[in-house]
Amino acid sequence: MIAILGAGKMGEALLSGVLRAGRRPAELMATARRAERGALLRERYGIETAGNVEAAAKADTLVLAVKPQDMGALLEEVGPHVPAGRLVISMAAGITTSYIEERLPAGVPVVRVMSNTPVHVDEAMSVISAGSYAGEAHLRLAEELLSPVGKVLRIPESLQDGATALSGSGPAYFYYLVEAMVDAGILLGMPRAAALEMVVQSAVGAAVMLRDSGEHPVLLREAVTSPGGTTIAAIRELERHGVRAAVLEAIEAARNRGRELAGG
To answer: Strand runs (DSSP E) across the chain, as ranges?
Structure first.
């Protein structure tokens, strides 16, 4: 039995993906802060809903999907009711495995996860890290749970704040770039809908080439960049305005802010 505690948008997306991957509704349960939310999940997916304490006591795997600021209260509520041997998976940004372990019975294995919003379309990037008591079997269980909704990568927990900044927030950077490119298309006289379609398909095509070709992004960019052509003129302007440096500093700022939030 897998219980998703705090089945908001990310928790529901994981729940939906796991069901599409073949798990039966009887193998899953969820909790929600509001009764109407729980009723919606029952109606939509045919799963059992329960209170946090009941779910913690009943499930073999607990997925903590609450917001980081709600994690302390959740652990205080369910901690005494988590039996030994349960696997606890945390999806809360910035919350360390040690923070969770200190609020659970001794020896409970914890795996920390940072995923991102493409979980809604089964294209998430999820990075996982083992806590003090989590071993290979626990990491494999986490991978089995997360792989139906995207790609899963193991990293040391010391890199989790960086992963949050890079891939957790990553989709927002691409949306920002798409927004700017669409504005450029409008500046050039194109209808917004046409500009958006061109930019989105270019982004999808470029992403697929990056993923499937195995080529370094520099080589793929150079293949588009003819001597004295239009692309190199655009690249020169991007470099002149310091776009590369801005990206580096932006992602570093996101990492630093994540550390601040984790520290309260």
So the answer is: 2-5, 28-31, 48-49, 61-64, 87-90, 110-114, 124-130, 150-154
CATH architecture of 2-159: 3-Layer(aba) Sandwich (3.40)
Contact present, 219 and 209 (Cβ < 8 Å): no
What band does 264 get if pLDDT is binned at 50, 70 and 90? low
> Residue 261 class from Cβ within 10 Å (0-12 exposed, 13-18 middle, 19+ buried)?
middle
3-state secondary structure of 7: coil
Q: Residue 150, SS3?
A: strand
* Owner of token pair 């379609």: 197
pLDDT in tens, 210-221: 999 999 999 999
Class for domain 170-262, per CATH? mainly alpha
Q: Give the tens place of pLDDT for each residue, 21-46.
A: 888 999 999 998 888 888 889 989 99
**Domain ranges across the chain:** 2-159, 170-262
> b/e for 84-93, b at 16 or more Cβ within 10 A?
eebbbbbbbb
